[in-house]
Amino acid sequence: ISIKTLIQTWSGVVNWNANWHDSFYINIWPNLITMATTVAMMIVIFRPLSSLYSARTRQPDVANLFREYKDNKSLIFHYKLIHEGYTNKSYKVYTYKQNYQFRIPKFSMVDWSKEMKIYKVLNPEAQIFENGYMIKPWIDGYHKDKLNNKEVQSLFDEIENLHKAKIDIKDKWDWHKYDKHLQKLSDVNRIAYDGLIQKYKKDKYVLSHTDLNKKNMLIKNNKVTLIDFEWLTYAPEYLDYAVVKHTMKINNEKLNQTKLKDYEFMFVIFSYLWTFEMKETPRVLGLRKNLENMLK
């Protein structure tokens, strides 16, 4: 098939005359210009929308990020998302030598340097970076909604050991950190919150996890291992026990129960105020609603 025949067929020119150059410029060239203009307009209009969609749905390049932070020669044959929290995503990365937990931060509101210091004491093999990326050897274990008696005791032992540890961080728990949102509280809860802060302001501060929930505990052979120390700080010694009581319904009966209940109430209010600092995703809004119901 000649070029002339293809052009004739495509353009729909039936009466093709001898001077095909004239036919080309009269019949085909305007169509080419129209097509090119249309394509250019489509690119201008839809490319930004496509980029916006991609930015919202794009997943991190886990394999290449892992190689960047661990070893460019790492032979990765699989990885999977194991947990997504408010501030990070964690993946299990399978390599031919060893399996790892690889944490990828979502934004920078966390002071990751504190976690770097505690892991030097608790898990020297872990690699923590100032921007929040973390690679550490995979720890076998699983999460449980309800712990048995031996696991509960192991959890209390882990909390007690953490409270005895000493690392050089200046951070300190501040009940007033989100006071700019206090107007969101009822008058009764606001007065009660301030009164309890004053009541316990002289309590002893110890190194604390402050985010103890089932996702931050690994269980194996009745032994609890605490993980994810991104919210590590010096806090009142009752706080970790109040958090566990709130998130997992685990009560340390050796503690003063009135005081523990007060701390749980303060933690609920603190968490509620914290939600107003976060991007209002369905998950954050759901948490806020649950906390509101607890405060009624």
Supply the key terms.
296 residues, 9 strands, single chain
Provide a compact summary of the structure.
The protein is α+β, with helices and mostly antiparallel strands. The chain has helices at about 5-10, 20-55, 60-70, 115-120, 150-165, 185-200, 240-250, 255-275, 280-295, and strands at about 75-85, 90-95, 100-105, 125-130, 135, 205-210, 215-220, 225, 235.
Tell me what the structure shows.
There is one protein chain. The protein is of the alpha+beta class. 46% of the residues lie in helices and 16% in strands. It contains nine helices and nine strands. The chain has helices spanning 3-11, 20-57, 62-69, 113-122, 149-164, 187-199, 239-248, 257-274, 282-295; strands at 76-84, 88-95, 99-105, 127-128, 134-137, 205-208, 217-220, 223-226, 233-236. Strands 1-2-3-5-4 form a five-stranded antiparallel β-sheet, with helices on both faces. A two-stranded antiparallel sheet has the order 6-9. Strands 7-8 form a two-stranded antiparallel ribbon. Helix 6 crosses helix 8, helix 7 (239-248) packs across helix 8 and helix 8 (257-274) runs antiparallel to helix 9. The radius of gyration is 30 Å and the shape is globular.
